[in-house]
TrEMBL record:
Lineage of source species: Archaea, Methanobacteriati, Methanobacteriota, candidate division MSBL1
GO biological process: NADP+ biosynthetic process
Pfam families xrefs: NAD_kinase, NAD_kinase_C
Organism: candidate division MSBL1 archaeon SCGC-AAA833F18
Gene3D superfamilies with a match to the protein in the record: Probable inorganic polyphosphate/atp-NAD kinase, domain 1
Family annotation (SUPFAM superfamilies): NAD kinase/diacylglycerol kinase-like
InterPro entries: AcoX-like, ATP-NAD_kinase_N, NAD/diacylglycerol_kinase_sf, NADK, Put_ATP-NAD_kin
GO molecular function terms attached to this record: NAD+ kinase activity
Protein name: ATP-NAD kinase
Length: 370
């Protein structure tokens, strides 16, 4: 009988839709709750576990109490063994580390966790490469290469690894300084390496920054000029994070635009800086709108990584046909396919197929969305 350890970080990803870019630390978590943030990790963990339950046989599950795994595994149909103690509603990084230490003694075949880069960092700080790990993506920032593309993919990959013995790869665990991130500074650090089950179609790559070459800058400016030249009056433009999208705001002459958040533009001026989901929905209530996003380098995600403010509710309000994808040719060299992981499987399915990407002034390429 194969053994699976399951850990859920119940607060992972809560800061995304309210524009906080993470929930590391008690102050950030309190602020997220004040803004009305709701947990997303438990539901995404259950989604992965249900797939695992269907596809894996003779599986023993070990987990932590309450919302850190017990409730999720039971909802998915497992009868887990429970280790450790926590204070429900008050989980911390120390609980994650305690769970990792407890799991080390259980002869685990796979450590499945639901969280973000911070959760991966805490786990690896304890177990290093002693146990294979696999992440169900639930955080705001998921730059590490230990995550499956979606919760469904995490369930499939875990099942195949436990049943068929897929190969392991050494995957980097990255983390972003959230305090710097909230100040629009991207400070990413390599925190360690983990052994992770590998199947290329199911696992995401680590984030790859686009090289800041002169050609890259020129391509960004060309895209920005084309977008600005086609902007309509009395239309709301929801501009996602990244250097390529920032070039649009620079072309408009907007001072101090956000790099890592979502800005709202109307009549060629900044309407809301670093907007939350609620603010986007409010401004788009009676106004035609367009979403403009750029894929994450190498990973290829256009929705569901770093721009959770553009939620399923926002996307359905604006409409799939009113989404513009932009990317420089340099970025697309390492990003042959695009991906979506909005948290709404039915909406994700609507994106399957091919979608045009603006790559220069009036220039488009069509790429598959998987």
């Amino acid at each position: 009988m194969r053994k699976l350890a399951l850990l859920v970080n119940p607060i992972a990803g809560m800061g995304g839709r309210v524009g906080l870019k993470g929930t590391d630390g008690p102050e950030a978590l309190e602020k997220a709750r004040e803004l009305g943030a709701k947990p997303i990790a438990p539901d995404r963990a259950v989604e992965a576990l249900k797939i695992l339950k269907e596809e894996a046989r003779d599986l023993e599950v070990i987990t932590y109490p309450s919302e850190m795994g017990e409730e999720e595994t039971q909802e998915a149909g497992f009868n887990p063994q429970i280790l450790g103690e926590i204070k429900p509603g008050e989980t911390t990084a120390e609980d994650t580390k305690s769970a990792a230490r407890d799991f080390l003694d259980q002869n685990i075949d796979l450590f499945l966790f639901a969280g973000g880069d911070g959760t991966a960092r805490d786990i690896v700080s304890v177990i290093n490469t002693e146990i294979p790990i696999l992440g169900v993506p639930t955080g705001v920032k998921m730059h590490s290469a230990v995550f499956a593309n979606t919760p469904e993919d995490a369930g499939k990959l875990a099942a195949r690894f436990l049943s068929e013995g897929l190969p392991l790869r050494e995957a980097e665990v990255m983390d972003v300084n959230e305090e710097a991130f909230r100040q629009d500074e991207l400070d990413t650090e390599l925190m360690g390496f983990a052994q992770t089950p590998y199947e290329s179609k199911l696992i995401q790559a680590g984030k790859l920054p686009t090289a800041p070459t002169g050609y890259e800058k020129a391509d960004q400016e060309s895209i920005a000029q084309f977008i600005v030249g086609s902007m309509e009056d009395n239309r709301l433009y929801i501009i996602g994070p990244g250097t390529t999208t920032r070039a649009i705001k620079e072309e408009l002459g907007i001072e101090d635009p956000t790099l890592l958040g979502v800005d709202l533009i109307k009549d060629r001026g900044l309407l809301v800086k670093d907007a939350r989901e609620e603010q986007i929905l409010q401004e788009a209530e009676d106004t035609p709108a367009t979403i403009i996003v750029s894929p994450i380098g190498k990973q290829g995600f256009i929705l569901g990584r770093g721009n959770q403010q553009i939620s399923p509710k926002v996307i359905r309000k604006i409409g799939k046909d009113n989404i513009i994808i932009i990317a420089t040719p340099t970025k697309l060299e390492s990003t042959p396919k695009l991906k979506v992981d909005t948290g709404d499987p039915e909406l994700d399915e609507e994106f399957q197929g091919h979608i045009p990407v603006i790559v220069g002034f009036g220039l488009r390429r069509t790429l598959p969305v998987t």
